[in-house]
Structure formats: structure tokens, C-alpha cells
Sequence to fold (79 residues):
Amino acid sequence: MRFLLATPKSELTTIRIELYFPGIKSPFKYSTGRSIKPEHWDQKKYRAKTMRGALGDRNRKLNLVLNEYEFAVERIRDL
Fold:
């Protein structure tokens, strides 16, 4: 499971989830409805960058939401 930016070159973009399932060629894509500036996104970790101040607080909250999505998907896979 990965979190990717829908349009990485735009000024403000939405984060989407891409899931890869065995036997399916194209990934399942789901928009989280959360937006972020691309310069605040870590392309290697697929999460919001660690920052200080108000931006850091916003990014931490965003990462918590992404972690909740990841946890929910893992619970569904376990079923």
C-alpha cells in the first residue's frame, strides 16, 4: 500500500491511496480527500515531511490520518 500525490506538479494536490492486489494488473486507487503542498511531501516515505511549528502540527495530524487508513486496510485484508 502506498500513499501518492494525485498531481505532484500542482501547487496543492490531493493524497490518494494505491493498493496492489495479487492477480489484478492495475492498482485500486482511492482519494483520501486530504490535500498537501508537494514540497511538504516525502516521496521516499510516502508520508508528509517532518517539520516544525504549525506546518509540523498539520503534517503530524495528516500522517496520523494516513496511518488510520493503513490500519483499516490491514484489518480488511485480515478478514
The radius of gyration is 13 Å. The CA atoms of residues 1 and 73 lie 9 Å apart. The mean pLDDT is 91.
